[in-house]
Amino acid sequence: MLDILPQDGDIHEIRLARAPVNAMDTALVDALREAVRNAPANGARGIVLSGAQGMFSAGVDVPALIQRDRAGVRAFWEAFFAMCGAVAASPVPTVAAITGHSPAGGAVLSLFCDYRVMAHGVYKIGLNEVQVGLSVPEPIQYAMRRIVGPYRAERLLTAGALVDAEQAHAIGLVDELATVEQVVTRAVLWLGDLLKLPSKAMLRTRAIARADLVAMWGDTTGLLDPGFLDDFFAEETQAVLHALVARLKAPKA
C-alpha cells in the first residue's frame, strides 16, 4: 500500500503503492497520514510523496465509498482531511512528485506540499469533483487559492477542470515539469538544495510562510462541513457517482 524508500541524505520517499491506480480508501489515507507523521522521528529531514509512473493517484476510491452509510462516509472524509492535515503541518518540507495523472484527491494531496514536480506530456491534474457530482469544501478551496490565486481557483474549481501538465505549470498549480522517469529525481534534488540551507533560518521562515495553512489544517477535528455530507447523499450526486462506477466497471472495448 505504501513503500518507504530512503533517498539522498535524510530524504524519505513515501510511494503510494495501491494497485492499480492508487485510489484512496481509508486504509491508504490512514497509512499515509501515519507515514508522514512518523517520518521525522525516523530521521527524515524532508519527504517526497510519489506514485506509480503514469499515475500519481486517481483520487478517492469511489466504488468503495458509495457502499458506505453516512457514518462510514463521514469516517472516510475525516480520515482524508486528517491525512491532508498531516502533510500541511509536517515539521519537515514535503514535495509532491506527481508521477502521472492526478485528478481529484490526488491533486488535493499535492496542494499541501511545499513544492510540486509533475511529469510533462499527456498527464492531467485538477480538482474535478464537480464533474462527478461533488462540491469542494471551503478548506480545500482555501488550499487551492493559496497556490493559484482566488480568481483562477474559482474558475478551475467551479468547472471541475482537469488541465494538462504544461498548463498546470503555466498557472502555478505545479512548480516544475520533468520526464516521468525523472520526476522523483527532480523532487529529491529540489528538496536536497533546500536542506543545504541553514536549517533554523529555513525552517523558521517556512513555518511563518505556512502559518495560515497550519492554522486551518493543523487540527482537522470538526473541519468537515456536515453540508458536504448532505451533498454527497443528495439524489443528483448519488446518480452521478453510480454512473461513474458503472463506467469504471464496464468491459474495455
TrEMBL record:
Gene3D superfamilies: 2-enoyl-CoA Hydratase, Chain A, domain 1. It comes from the Bacteria. CDD domains: crotonase-like (cd06558). PROSITE patterns: ENOYL_COA_HYDRATASE. SUPFAM superfamilies: ClpP/crotonase. Pfam families: ECH_1 (PF00378). InterPro entries: ClpP/crotonase-like_dom_sf, Enoyl-CoA_hyd/isom_CS, Enoyl-CoA_hydra/iso. Belongs to the enoyl-CoA hydratase/isomerase family. This is Enoyl-CoA hydratase/isomerase family protein.
